[in-house]
Amino acid sequence: MPDPVGHVGSGPPTYDAEPTALPPADPDALADLVADTVLEGAQYGACTLRAVSVRGDSARYRGEPRRDALLTARFGTGEDALVLVAMATGARATPGAHRAAAEACRWIGRAVGRSQARLAEDIRAGRRGDLKSGLHRLTDRSLGRLRASAAEQGVEPEEYTASLRCLLLPADPECRTRVFFGVGPGGLFRLRDGEWQDIEPRVAETAGEPVVGFGSPPHETPEGDRLTMDLGITTPPSPYEPAPRPPRAPFRFRASVARPGDTLLLCTDGLAEPLRGEPELAAHLTTRWSTPEPPGLATFLVDSQVRVKGYADDRTAAAVWEA
Questions:
Q1: What's the pLDDT score for residue 17?
Q2: pLDDT digit string (tens) for 151-210?
Q3: Could you give the angle at which helices 128-153 and 97-114 cross, rounded to 10 degrees?
Q4: pLDDT tens-digit series, residues 35-70
């Protein structure tokens, strides 16, 4: 039996460790109910996947639905298959937050599934530029569907939206390229040689270990001509045009090559914030996840629920252990 859910830090959290109140149910919309916890796992190629989405202590206490959504899916067969992990978080304090998150995962899942063959080929060939631009388009289209849904429901786009963070894992055992992409807050971490590395890409950053064929275009031609220029000068809006909309959250992308023994962790803000803010949690997970064998599903669930006072949001995480 796994250990009971514990805590780290200065003291126990205020809320109970186990669920208390269920969200209200509409008898004519039972499909809208969200399970307290979703747990998933798989093994493909050189990696073992564990994924979980858990309702936060605050939502459990108040009887609110989990705002986080998790989708894990395999597209294709054999060594050409591609595993997608998608996680989304609906906007805080909005009634349809859980629906927006689930819809975002479904749309990106459909888009990736329909492009699986091309994406798998680009990952194996190391076509970083094609991957980044293609996944950016798929993400924009998926989040655009949310804006269309908001319009259909007669609500503002910011009331029916979600962050979206995804991981692509090729089933080919000879390919160790791992691709992260998404929009919105959260965390991307790597446990290597007993230490956590925060590898969340900054805006416009092209990070990761060298991948064959991956490389950013030069800032200028061999003749010295600049390819891009941004002086940071804003143009005042015309009085005859509507005011510009607030800028969208930036697209984030990272493609890197995993080493044997690495553990890659993708998570929503509910786990990213305490992992960054509480050293004891990072130390605890280092001890738990540095073993040669990946944890079983039940053990991973317990590990991901270790609580920290002051952090009570939903937690969604996907961890990949490299053989």
A1: 86
A2: 999 999 999 999 999 999 999 999 999 999 999 999 999 999 999 999 999 875 444 444
A3: 140
A4: 999 999 999 988 999 999 999 999 999 999 999 999
Angle between helices 128-153 and 116-125 (to 10 degrees): 150
Locate 10 and state its tokens: 């200065």
**Residue 290 is which amino acid?**
S
> Which residue matches tokens 């094609």?
130
Contact present, 130 and 217 (Cβ < 8 Å): no
What residues have CB less than 8 Å from 171, skipping those under 6 apart? 44, 45, 74, 76, 78, 79, 80, 81, 82, 83
3-class state of residue 174 by DSSP? coil
Structure tokens belonging to residue 18: 């186990």
User: What does the buried/exposed string (b/e) look like for 94-106 if buried means 16 or more CB atoms within 10 Å of the residue's CB?
Assistant: bebbbbbbbbbbb
Q: Are 181 and 123 in contact (CB under 8 A)?
A: no
Task: Concatenate the DSSP letters of all residues of 115-145 into one string.
Answer: THHHHHHHHHHT-HHHHHHHHHHHHHHHHHH
Alpha-helical regions (H) of the chain: 57-62, 97-114, 116-125, 128-153, 269-277, 279-289, 297-304
> Please, what's the b/e burial string for 241-276 (b: 16 or more CB within 10 A of its CB; e: otherwise)?
eeeeeeeeeebbbbbbbbeeebbbbbbbbbbbbbbb
Q: Is the dihedral of CA 276, 277, 283, 288 positive or negative?
A: negative
Tracing tokens 């805590």 back to the chain, one arrives at: 7
Reduce the DSSP state of residue 105 to 3 states and report it.
helix
Helices (H), 1-96: 57-62
Instruction: Label residue 224 exposed, middle or buried (CB < 10 Å: 0-12, 13-18, 19+).
Output: exposed
Tell which residue, 53, 48, 58, 90, has the closest CA to residue 70: 53
